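Hey,

Quick one before I head out. I ran the complex with glutamine overnight. Inputs first:
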Amino acid sequence: MSGAFRPDMRRAEAGDLLATAFGKAGFEDCRLMARRLLADALRVEPGELFLHPDRLIGETAERLGPALSRALKGEPLTRIAGRRSFCGRDFRVTPDVLDPRPETELLVEEMLKRLAGQRAPRLLDLGTGSGAIILTLLAEIPEATGVAVDLSPAALAVAGGNAEALGVAGRVAFHHGDLFAGLAGPFDAILSNPPYIPSADLAGLELAVRDFDPPLALDGGPDGLAFYRRIAGEARAFLMPGGWLGVELGAGQSESVIALMEAAGFQDMAIRYDLAGHARHLLGRG
Ligand code: GLN
């Protein structure tokens, strides 16, 4: 297949070839995948791809074959591109970080509502990964500052690069550590999309997650709740009075995490449901 793409091939032809390959391999959304893979390889937006369907693909031909074979083996297109759009901004993703998912944008949206009108809020992101959550908030709230924590130095390096690219590096401190260890509060808001998969379920995850997201970003301990227990238990000591905690939830975890946050004294709790109707985020006031 890799020899099939030539520099003198037109965009439309390359798109057809990719769609056919995805179709033959049994991918249902083969047209969409073809467009995205081609757009990523050409480094253009999918929307502008076929404004010029007759343009030649040129040296991109060399990248298409290898990219297609990775995609056919089930690697997510965001991983192949090494980039992911989150809340309309471009984030670099590497094998060291969780690929930020669209559902996580809802946590950012909810926290933005709660921080509206607050001057210069100070934010904390626990397990920042690519930095998607806190860097988006910093980009949206020009006076905000924050601390981004991760246990993985490699993840912090990726988040640091993303902070530079987004022009917010001057307002975020990166901290290598285990949740709250070594931090000094208070914060106006604490956010986390922690690892929440029960350890025994890791092996049975869909391939795109199991083989491409780092295990450190997924493993939530025996019942998947290990990080929520620690975050709920310690967060209020690091929050301003009335400050907010917002966490993403794994499947079926809302009741347990509500109970943990209630026991810790959080109030005004609210769940944000995703488009599939799952309780996806929980926010509460400390
Ligand atoms: N905070 C990052 C995100 O939401 C990483 C989360 C994680 O690695 N569990 O994308």
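The radius of gyration is 21 Å.

Talk tomorrow,
K.
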